[in-house]
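hi!! sorry for the late reply, been swamped w classes. u asked for the two structures so here they r. pasted raw, havent cleaned anything up. first the sequence of the first protein and right below it the tokens
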Amino acid sequence: MCKIYGYVRVSTIQQKVERQINNIIGFNGDAIIISEKQSGKDIDNRAEFKKLLNKVKSGDTIIFDEVSRMSRNADEGFSLYMELMSKGISLVFLKERHIDTDEYKRRTQKHIEKVSSSNKKMDNLINGILELVAEFEQENLKDNIRLAFEQAEHERQFLIKRVTEGKATSSKKQGRPEGSCNIKTDKVEHIKQTIKDLSKDFDGKYSDAKILREYLHNTSKGTYYKYKKELKEE
């Protein structure tokens, strides 16, 4: 019988897993919860997750609250995603449903009717274009998966930097130049860098709506457009 697992993870013993568990059980009450308190940087250091990977088989499903719970290492996460999917294991990400394995398969396995008429040259041209479009969509889907794991890795780097530097202190406030109206925090820099990397108005290829929905879902529209405007003025 196929099994459904819910994997939850926090990085420290002080953090709680209840929110993740509630989200997963709310999505599927039959999920078998696997809980772990360990950093998401390297899968090799996560004993419970490794046990889960060794027991899952074709037809099973693993539910995560979000991509970062699976991995905060972009290369490792993307590679594992493709490996598990190739083995027939379904992956569900409650906060990033656009990269669920079922969604990936649905969009890449769409049947394209080949054109067949009396004009063979034209048929070959049109069918060749259709094949290229299908290949482009498949590569675009892979890019979306990789970007999701890259975003998780960037968030990890941001969190490490924040912990290392500590929260803003009164001494820092005292050292702030008078008249400064554009104080840049780590979080602001993270949002701005994401906009620069992904927005088609800069170095990326995505619309503002897609970025807000899939990569900066905790950022308000007002904040997003404020920082985007600042980037254009820099």
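now the second protein. again sequence first, tokens right under
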Amino acid sequence: MLLRNALRFLGLGWYVVLCLFGCGYIGYIFDNNLGTKPVLILLGLLTGLFLSVVGIYRMVKTLNN
């Protein structure tokens, strides 16, 4: 039981990293194609941060039940 919860919390860390990296990378690609260098990568990182916070909230909420 303890190992199961530890692995779920480890999954939360990967979720944050993948959200930030994925959205940041998509912003980077759009920045290169559209020529708006720092704007879309920052928007992508903010979107990734928002998605990771919402996802963590939902996952922790289900872990506590």
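hope this helps!! also noticed smth abt the second:
The mean pLDDT is 92.
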